[in-house]
Amino acid sequence: MPSTSSPIASRRLALAWLTASGTLLLAGCDQLASASHGSASPSKGIDISGAYYARNFKLTDFNGQTRSLSDFKDKVVMLYFGFTQCPDVCPTALIRAASLMQQLGTQADDQQLIFITVDPERDTPEMLREYMTAFHPSFLALTGSNQDIRQTADEFRVYYKKVPTGSSYTMDHTALNYLFDRQGSIRVALRHEQTADDYTGEVRKLLAEPA
């Protein structure tokens, strides 16, 4: 899939690609999707319950409000690191997340998708707001200084790196999705190659637990 500098065009290209291929799986530009802790079967997430990392974040949303995990108590949180000019992996992840929300039906109000940009230099709050709401009105994006993003990524053991591409650059980054239970504890890491059904199944397990 060709790269593009427009977040909305990126989403449209992803949708066109997915329609043509008939699948939500996409091979993604050398993205990393490994975890150093936990175990999983091919159709399930990686159990990282009790991990001593991925404990919290403190960043700013696209409305200028400071956010941390405690703001989403009693919800199952799915957290993903990406950037708006990502040509394929990030749009695919967000399309899958939107499908998850549809599958959850009335339970969707108890699920919160949080997107943390790894490209704060280009991902302005306005761009993040437009990008996220194009996929689902409830999706939230967080940003901060380069130092804030680096500290958060390190806390989550997320890799990202700026890669020059001609006169511009792209970002290599980890493509895992992290699930937190209603108490704000990290529980599951989901791989990029898993389907929307796989994601929905893991979210429903956490939603079924006592709040």
UniProtKB/TrEMBL annotation:
PROSITE patterns per UniProt: THIOREDOXIN_2
Record keywords, A-Z: Copper, Disulfide bond, Metal-binding, Signal
SS bonds (residue pairs): C86-C90
Domain of life of the native organism: Bacteria
Signal peptide range: 1-26
Gene Ontology molecular function, alphabetical: metal ion binding
Binding-site residues for Cu cation, renumbered to this chain: C86, C90, H173
Pfam family, one: SCO1-SenC
CDD domains: SCO
Disulfide bond in keyword set: yes
InterPro entries for this protein: SCO1/SenC, Thioredoxin-like_sf, Thioredoxin_domain
Domain annotation Thioredoxin: ranges: 48-208
Protein family per UniProt: Belongs to the SCO1/2 family.
Name recorded for this polypeptide: SCO family protein
Species, as recorded: Malikia granosa
